[in-house]
Amino acid sequence: xxxxxxxxxxxxxxxxxxxxxxxxxxxxxxxxxxxxxxxxxxxxxxxxxxxxxxxxxxxxxxxxxxxxxxxxxxxxxxxxxxxxxxxxxxxxxxxxxxxxxxxxxxxxxxxxxxxxxxxxxxxxxxxxxxxxxxxxxxxxxxxxxxxxxxxxxxxxxxxxxxxxxxxxxxxxxxxxxxxxxxxxxxxxxxxxxxxxxxxxxxxxxxxxxxxxxxxxxxxxxxx
Length: 223
What we know:
Helix content: 25-40%
Shape: elongated
CATH superfamily of the largest domain: Response regulator
Distance between the termini: 31 Å
Low-confidence stretches: none
Number of helices: 8
CATH topology of the largest domain: Rossmann fold
Structural class: alpha/beta
Number of strands: 11
CATH class of the largest domain: Alpha Beta
CATH architecture of the largest domain: 3-Layer(aba) Sandwich
């Protein structure tokens, strides 16, 4: 899952970002409203964690512009503003949830998981392909009934492929999921993680197929 964390407090941004990355999210950080607005206008994210008191562009204006573009990306507002009118306005502008500072990290992650579950409510409860299953609550993979050990980036690649099982996912799209805009990593770096995943899926009823010039596809192996 690719998350945009919009927070201008450097230490708080680092703390939250590191914690989310340990929970296997791909996190991009934005330190001001103008940068966040530009990213949201050109990039796709699974969710946004948005502070309100931002430089260059207020968080509420970032939210208003996001919804004006027709985006339904889940937004969790996290702010020190405690006035009722700020909370009401944020929800009226299209925020999905609101968390006041200071907060416990466990609560933030729980609220984020809830937003992601609701945004995917139209899909399968437990996405699966062959004997590979993703538990939406724990975000853990099971292969033939056993927990599949993955690194965060392996997890991100496999999750992207599983959620579009049977459809081609471009290498560039996977690259965006794994690496921030500031990363020097090239799209070909994805091949390393696909190779590792193929080794971990050996003998299973699911495989990753390479379609030259197009990308990768996850499919069930028929008996």
